[in-house]
Structure formats: C-alpha cells, structure tokens
Specification:
elongated; mainly alpha; single chain; 7 helices
C-alpha cells in the first residue's frame, strides 16, 4: 500500500475513533448534571467543559497526527548504533540514550534522539488513542443504554475506574514493546546485510 494512502487511512481512523468517543461522551454531558459524572481528568480536576474538551482534543489530535507523519515519512531505522544491542529493549535504550539498560529514563528524561522519540510517540499514541477511543466509546454506550450485563460487571468489579484506565493505557506499553521489537529485527537484518 502507498505510504501516503496508509497515513491518511490511519489518520482518518484516528479522527473517526475520536469522533465516536465524542459522540458517546456527548450523550452524558448534555444531560442535566452530565459534567458532574464526566471521568475525563480535565473536567474532574480543572473544571473544563465541553468546548474546552473539544479544543484540547483537536490540539492533541493535530500534534499526534504530526508526530505520526514524522514516523511515516521522516524516520528510518538506524543501521548502526553506538553499541550492539542484544534485545529489543536494549535497542530502544541505545537508540534513545546511546547506552544499554537506560530505557527506564523515559519516565523522567527526554531521549537524546529526539527524532526517534517523536516518531515513536506518533506511532504509539496514534494506535493507542484509536484503541482507547474504541474502548471508551463501547463503555459509554453500554452504560448510557443501561446494558444489564455490563451493569453486572461494574457491580462485580466494585472499583472499575482503575481497571478501566489500566485497560486503556496498557495497549500503549504493548505497542511500544512491539515497535521496539519490530525495529530491532529490522536493525539486525540491516546489520547482517552490511557484514
């Protein structure tokens, strides 16, 4: 498939998934007292209303779309690194910080290789938000239309919010690991070709 077509199809999927999330959220928000039950942290902690949520999401979607553009058209897997990685995690660590076993620094430090960081963020965030938007849409619709089986599940779980956020954000970790592994395999192929 042509790269440009693939980019625009995935971007359309991202926008469509966000639209589905907005539709299902609007079912709740435009009811009396709807903002009180909104679980979005921007609404809960900062009092952001519907217009603010729309504006923030448009900005975030544009930024992620641009980062995904970088991933699709500007970023290429590097054929030689400072050190030879033995695993996908080491590959990512060397790619980001030029040292082995430094990937944990992603928790507090911006990688040295900013192009790789932006490209990977574009890939992971695009697919992660598509998945999260679909999950949120399903959740909202099942709750809004009072699906009895879903209500039973929510009663059984007791504290669904932490589990819900784990379900939403865990795909981003899996997507990152999958991306590192895919690039590590491509790196090894390139390295073997140059021997």
């Amino acid at each position: 498939m042509d790269k440009s077509l693939k980019y625009f199809l995935i971007l359309f999927l991202l926008i469509f998934a966000r639209g589905c999330d907005f539709y299902s959220t609007s079912l709740w928000i435009f009811q009396e007292g709807g903002l009180e039950d909104e679980t979005n942290p921007l609404t809960q902690f900062f009092g952001v209303g519907w217009n603010g949520l729309v504006l923030v999401n448009i900005i975030v979607t544009i930024i992620i779309g641009y980062c995904f553009y970088i991933y699709m058209f500007k970023y290429k897997v590097i054929g030689n690194l400072k050190f030879i990685p033995e695993s996908a995690i080491q590959y990512a660590s060397i790619l980001y910080y030029e040292k082995k076993n430094q990937l944990w620094k992603l928790l507090y430090k911006i990688p040295n290789n900013k192009l790789a960081a932006v490209a990977h963020t574009g890939y992971v965030a695009t697919w992660g938000i598509i998945i999260a938007s679909i999950i949120v849409t399903i959740h909202n619709l099942l709750q809004f239309y009072e699906n009895q089986y879903y209500d039973i599940y929510l009663e059984f779980v007791k504290y669904p919010r932490p589990i819900f956020y784990i379900i939403i954000f865990s795909p981003m970790i899996l997507l990152s690991l999958n991306l590192y592994n895919k690039e590590f395999q491509e790196y090894k192929l390139r390295k073997n070709r140059h021997k």
